[in-house]
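Appendix C: a fully annotated inverse folding record. The material below is reproduced so that readers can follow the format used throughout the book. The structure is listed first as C-alpha cells, followed by the designed sequence.
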C-alpha cells in the first residue's frame, strides 16, 4: 500500500510534465501548414511537368523550331507576369511552386505552331494576370488560366490562329503543309488515317497532335494521383457514346469513334486541362459529371458549330458550373437523410 501511494504522485507528475511539454510545443512552435501546402504543390507541379515530357518531345520532333519558340515565349512571359503581379500586390513570390511554368507549357502546347510571337506573349499575360492573379493567385481561380489565355487570343487573333496549313507549306516542316484532321474532314470530308493521328504526324496545336503522347502522360498523372481519373473517363465515355450514335445514324461515314478520340485536343484536354484540381469539382461523383459535361459540349461544338475543335470552350463552360456541381454532389454524411445544402 505504501509503495502504491508513493508511486501515484510520481505518475501524476510525469503526466503533468508531459502535457505541459506537449502544450508548449503546440502553442509555441511555428505553423507548418504554409510550407507543407507549397511543398505539396511543387510535387504536384513536378509530376505534371514529367507527364508533359512525352508531349513536348513529340512537339519538338514534329514542329521543330516552331515548338521551341512558342514554349519559350510562354514560359518567360508567364514567369515575368506572375513576378510582376506578386510584386505589385506586395506579396511573397510564388514562382517556386512551379504553377506558372505548368500554365505556360499547357498554353504553349495548345497554340498553333505558326502563331506569331505576340499571340503567345499576350495569351500568357492574360492567362496569369486575368486567369489567375486577379482571383488572388493559385487555388483561388475559377477558370483554367491557360484556357483563359487561349480563349482571349482565339477571339482577338482569329485570323492567325486558324491559318490554313496549305498556306504554310514553305516553312520546311512537313506537318505544316496540311490542314488539321478536323478541318480537313469538316471542309472536304477526307479522312486522316488513325495511325497518323495516334503518333502525331499531323498538323494542329503543337501539343495536341499525338494521342500516344497524351495517353502516356495522362496515365502517369492518374497513376500518381495528380489527375482524377473520373474526369478523363467521363469525357471519353461521352465521346464514345456520341460517336457511336453518329455511326448508327450515318453508317456510311468513315469518321469513326477512334477518329473522334484521337483528333484535336480531346485527349490533351481530358488529361491535362480538365483535370485541374482547382477548377474541377471536389467529389468523385461531381468530377465524373464534370467530365461527361466536357465531352458532351465538345461533341456538340464539333457536330454543329463552325469551329471543329471545342475543348477550350467546353472546359471553360464546365469550370463555370463547378461550384454548382459541388453543391449538387455534396457527400451524404452517415445518418443524414439529405445530402444537399440549399
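Designed amino acids, in order:
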Amino acid at each position: 500500500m505504501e509503495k502504491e501511494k508513493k508511486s501515484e504522485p510520481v505518475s501524476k507528475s510525469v503526466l503533468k510534465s508531459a502535457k505541459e511539454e506537449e502544450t508548449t510545443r503546440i502553442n509555441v512552435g511555428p505553423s507548418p501548414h504554409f510550407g507543407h501546402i507549397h511543398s505539396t504543390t511543387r510535387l504536384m507541379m513536378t509530376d505534371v511537368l514529367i507527364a508533359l515530357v512525352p508531349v513536348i518531345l513529340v512537339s519538338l520532333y514534329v514542329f521543330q523550331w516552331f515548338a521551341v519558340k512558342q514554349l519559350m515565349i510562354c514560359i518567360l512571359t508567364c514567369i515575368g507576369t506572375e513576378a510582376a503581379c506578386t510584386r505589385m500586390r506586395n506579396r511573397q513570390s510564388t514562382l517556386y511552386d512551379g504553377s506558372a511554368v505548368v500554365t505556360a507549357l499547357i498554353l504553349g502546347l495548345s497554340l498553333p505552331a505558326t502563331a506569331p510571337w505576340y499571340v503567345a506573349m499576350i495569351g500568357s499575360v492574360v492567362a496569369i494576370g486575368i486567369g489567375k492573379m486577379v482571383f488572388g493567385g493559385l487555388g483561388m481561380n475559377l477558370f483554367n488560366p491557360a484556357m483563359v489565355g487561349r480563349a482571349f487570343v482565339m477571339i482577338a487573333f482569329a485570323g492567325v490562329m486558324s491559318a490554313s496549313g496549305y498556306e504554310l507549306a514553305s516553312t520546311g516542316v512537313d506537318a505544316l503543309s496540311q490542314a488539321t484532321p478536323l478541318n480537313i474532314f469538316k471542309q472536304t470530308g477526307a479522312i486522316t488515317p488513325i495511325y497518323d493521328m495516334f503518333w502525331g504526324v499531323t498538323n494542329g496545336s503543337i501539343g495536341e497532335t499525338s494521342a500516344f503522347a497524351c495517353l502516356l502522360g495522362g496515365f502517369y498523372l492518374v497513376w500518381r494521383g495528380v489527375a482524377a481519373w473520373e474526369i478523363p473517363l467521363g469525357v471519353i465515355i461521352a465521346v464514345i457514346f456520341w460517336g457511336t450514335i453518329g455511326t448508327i445514324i450515318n453508317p456510311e461515314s468513315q469518321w469513326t469513334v477512334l477518329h473522334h478520340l484521337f483528333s484535336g485536343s480531346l485527349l490533351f484536354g481530358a488529361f491535362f486541362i480538365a483535370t485541374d484540381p482547382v477548377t474541377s469539382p471536389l467529389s468523385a461523383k461531381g468530377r465524373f459529371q464534370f467530365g461527361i459535361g466536357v465531352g458532351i459540349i465538345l461533341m456538340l461544338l464539333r457536330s454543329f458549330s463552325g469551329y471543329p475543335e471545342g475543348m477550350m470552350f467546353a472546359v471553360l463552360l464546365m469550370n463555370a458550373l463547378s461550384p454548382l456541381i459541388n453543391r449538387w454532389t455534396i457527400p451524404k454524411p452517415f445518418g443524414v437523410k439529405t445530402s444537399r445544402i440549399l
